[in-house]
Amino acid sequence: xxxxxxxxxxxxxxxxxxxxxxxxxxxxxxxxxxxxxxxxxxxxxxxxxxxxxxxxxxxxxxxxxxxxxxxxxxxxxxxxxxxxxxxxxxxxxxxxxxxxxxxxxxxxxxxxxxxxxxxxxxxxxxxxxxxxxxxxxxxxxxxxxxxxxxxxxxxxxxxxxxxxxxxxxxxxxxxxxxxxxxxxxxxxxxxxxxxxxxxxxxxxxxxxxxxxxxxxxxxxxxxxxxxxxxxxxxxxxxxxxxxxxxxxxxxxxxxxxxxxxxxxxxxxxxxxxxxxxxxxxxxxxxxxxxxxxxxxxxxxxxxxxxxxxxxxxxxxxxxxxxxxxxxxxxxxxxxxxxxxxxxxxxxxxxxxxxxxxxxxxxxxxxxxxxxxxxxxxxxxxxxxxxxxxxxxxxxxxxxxxxxxxxxxxxxxxxxxxxxxxxxxxxxxxxxxxxxxxxxxxxxxxxxxxxxxxxxxxxxxxxxxxxxxxxxxxxxxxxxxxxxxxxxxxxxxxxxxxxxxxxxxxxxxxxxxxxxxxxxxxxxxxxxxxxxxxxxxxxxxxxxxxxxxxxxxxxxxxxxxxxxxxxxxxxxxxxxxxxxxxxxxxxxxxxxxxxxxxxxxxxxxxxxxxxxxxxxxxxxxxxxxxxxxxxxxxxxxxxxxxxxxxxxxxxxxxxxxxxxxxxxxxxxxxxxxxxxxxxxxxxxxxxxxxxxxx
Length: 693
What we know:
Elements lengths: L6 E12 L2 E13 L4 E5 L6 H9 L6 E10 L2 E2 L5 H7 L4 E4 L3 H4 L6 H12 L4 H14 L5 H4 L9 H13 L5 E5 L7 H18 L2 E5 L3 H7 L2 E6 L2 E7 H6 L4 H8 L2 H7 L31 H5 L5 E3 L2 E3 L12 H9 L26 E14 L10 E14 L3 E5 L6 H8 L7 E6 L2 E2 L5 H6 L4 E4 L13 H12 L4 H14 L16 H13 L5 E5 L7 H18 L2 E5 L3 H7 L2 E6 L2 E7 H6 L4 H8 L15 E4 L37 E2 L12 E4 L1
């Protein structure tokens, strides 16, 4: 491998002028990327990860500018180039995969025209030749039926297919540097694995340098050569990936590691949560920017910024670096607070972590009986005469006890969110019954149908999109009580004050608007809104999937604290099995509208019985660079069949490595505590299985 830097960023400062002052987004960033190398950039939201990429691309927001420093790409300093010259580099020498492909793609243009656009602009190709090249590159990135896809629009593709389109657009002109900004955040684990493996293959094939920006430390561990850790606009530690995970030196890095759900599960402890919040980038401290949140900070940490320390490829800026034998951040935090992380009686490694006073009861709160949900689907032709039925949920049964958490997992499109909406009373079932506290939601009419929302509320994945941007936070929190006519203005105000205190917020937030808050704060506000009516059940639909590990830990701990305090029950929907195992008592695994496995959380994760469940587990990025799956791993490629025309019998049959003739008959869930719907439940496998849908 050629180790002369392909990209070399030196002392980069980027400022953004806003109405209230200047945001110092980057302050002296130094990094380099070699040909054929993947550099991971990690850190909390607002740390400067994406701003580094946008500075390189010349796509800074209005008011943004590179105030000093240099960006050398193939020996050329991009900071000294005129704008028209920078534009020619985008796509030809630098390609970028954005976090949200749906908002990054033009909804009015067909896929083929969007993929071939860089070729027509930069290479001056004819439309015919460019479209032929578009089909080739779409085929290269694993797009099924690219000849058909080029005539589709973005909304007609799944999330994984749209991300493949973004990769194809970034690679069509064979750039030297590929920037992947959170390329898999919104994807389920199987699609995520396919996308990351694809980026690795293309990096090796084209000898590109890759910058992988992510908050997922498992992704970093398995797909990078080196890692740069960013905090408040500065790189605080850089090291080879293996070294960073085994010997982190900066206290911020070790704190991020400690916040991983996998660490808490392995030790049987409560999730570590980094105290406080990052400093404002408009008024930065003189000393170490992490000092106000660091459990080891001393006087020198607030007086001056630490110089760069370390040797060779491992460098860090810290006055009190991690030493062998040091207490973990979680242990030190518990000691300083004068309490153990959790109740020692339940500190069993690998088990669900329980703390506080949780009432042990057999009272059934939610009883879903053979619930189904179907949608009419029009055909794809001009007249759209051919109609079908989308079977989103097919005869699903779930039982949830008072004070219990039920985790629902599966790939995108499996029916998890639809199931959540049915239980929350936002949609009626097409068949079956959904009983909450003995009342069938489908039979409730008029005011009774409205009043049921006092007992069940929903916590959405995107809290910002779920709030009216024109309403203040006090109005947003008061709205559910106004609709339900619970109390007068004084009583509602008292209830709001009680709730915001419970979720760790202060009174000053009430006269602000949603756009003024960070993702973690918005999720707390969304949680607060779901609590205003004192519900028995909260349906949490991917509540932490878009949050970095430190904020995720805060939200999850808050949810568990209030569950213990208020006796809440949760239906917790997620594609992150580590988070689900940490939160849930039981887990149900959905595939194409059906529950295929259900059981105690620890048993389902550690001893999966259904091949699909094991494939999900084998797809999870593990935050350990030395981890590799054994020869019994199941690897899925492709996407699930269409819910308009699902396979007969077992719906997983076309993707299952063990499918036989008997699988054409639908398997029923067994009656044990750990149930499975499979003709060939897993016992032991001896060879790696790889199947293509």
